[in-house]
Design a protein that fits this description.
By secondary structure, the chain is of the alpha/beta class. Bound molecules: 2-acetamido-2-deoxy-beta-D-glucopyranose (2 copies). It is an enzyme of class 3 (hydrolase).
Length: 344
């Protein structure tokens, strides 16, 4: 049975009913999607207003990019919301020097919140692998892992990587890492594999589509068709998101990293900034379909059983990001907190 696409709210209600039916009434939440909460704007609502928004949407997983004190203080007492926090890229070099410096960072930035904020992950850097400071990621991850282990905390330590690690991503079974990625990423993946801690990945079909709109179908880029568009051996693909995800899975397998879970830390579609590719209508289609994909519990063709754990980018349009599409990934307008298009 499929939910008719009358409106997103209608669809979510219908899906919630289906889930209740399928789970004997156990599942209440409207969606399993997480949201990124970026702070690069000078007109953003206060953190407590934002938390009220998340509560009204039944969002139980959010991600921030650092350990912002105002935000973490506002999350105190909201332990049912899992929060991913991050070590800032510019702090990596200093932290890579010693476990002592990492311990000090932890005591300053994490410890004050442990009693009443539900910190689920600390990500060591965002999209620094592959790159100049990519080699700092592993030592900081190792030190942080020791710190949380020594305190028996259930916080996972990982990093967030972009798809620029892939030299090849099409067809998915040809997925392969670039030489620089191989050098910096493989040791990280092997380290994560020891404890099956997920690697966090940012997957943006939008950028691939925007760079080759002649050859890429919009319905394939926006998860808006059920038609098989890519046949890769026995695996059939109808959307580009799954192709990219599975290319990463294949690339990991070729390096001997099997079954490592992947969390989609970011995906989304801008609602403005690049002509008719970036309208609220297209952004709504992509994001709605992605939420549907996550909530269906179906994984990708290569990992059909594991489901997708995913976060949309982002809660608000951020006016201090580079001009153009970068400022327009938000689901909500920061000044009045109104949705830019109907999604939840
Ligand atoms: C913390 O967040 C995670 C992820 O959403 C959730 O599974 C867990 O139940 C939360 N913890 C509490 C105490 O609610
Ligand atoms: C954008 O406009 C061009 C030129 O009119 C058209 O060919 C293309 O199909 C449009 N793309 C979308 C996504 O609407």
């Amino acid at each position: 049975m499929d939910c008719p696409k009358k409106s997103f709210l209608f669809m979510i209600l219908c899906m919630a009913l289906l889930f209740n039916y399928n789970n004997g009434g156990i599942v209440d939440a409207a969606t399993n999607i997480g949201l990124n909460y970026g702070l690069l704007g000078d007109n953003l609502p206060s953190p407590s207003e934002v938390i009220n928004l998340y509560k009204s949407l039944s969002i139980t997983n959010i991600r921030i990019f650092d350990t912002n004190t105002d935000v973490l203080n506002a999350f105190r007492g909201n332990r049912n919301i899992g929060v991913i926090v991050g070590v800032k890229n510019q702090d990596l070099a200093a932290l890579a020097v010693s476990e002592d410096s990492v311990n000090t960072w932890f005591v300053t930035n994490i410890e004050p919140y442990l009693a009443d904020v539900n910190i689920t992950f600390i990500t060591v850097g965002n999209e620094v692998i592959p790159g100049e400071i990519g080699s700092h990621v592993l030592p900081v991850m190792q030190s942080l892992t020791n710190v949380v282990k020594s305190r028996s905390l259930p916080i996972l330590i990982s990093t967030t990587v972009a798809m620029t690690n892939l030299g090849k991503s099409y067809p998915p079974s040809a997925g392969d890492f670039t030489p620089q990625a191989r050098e910096q990423l493989i040791p990280v993946l092997k380290f994560l594999s020891q404890t099956y801690t997920p690697i966090l990945v940012n997957i943006y079909p939008y950028f691939a589509y925007a760079s080759d709109r002649i050859n890429i179908r919009i319905d394939y880029a926006t998860l808006n068709t059920e038609e098989v568009v890519v046949q890769d051996g026995p695996l059939s693909y109808s959307n580009m998101f799954d192709v990219i995800f599975d290319a990463f899975v294949w690339a990991m397998e070729k390096e001997g990293v099997k079954d490592l879970p992947m969390v989609v830390a970011e995906t989304g579609w801008p609602s403005a900034g690049n002509g008719n590719l970036t309208t609220p209508e297209i952004a709504a289609i992509y994001n709605t379909n992605f939420v549907k994909h996550v909530d269906s519990g179906k994984g990708t063709p290569k990992r059909p059983k594991s489901g997708i754990n995913g976060f949309l980018f982002a809660t608000f349009n951020e006016n201090q990001k580079p001009a153009g599409t970068e400022q327009n990934f938000g689901l909500y307008n920061p000044t009045d907190m109104k949705p830019i298009y109907k999604l939840f």
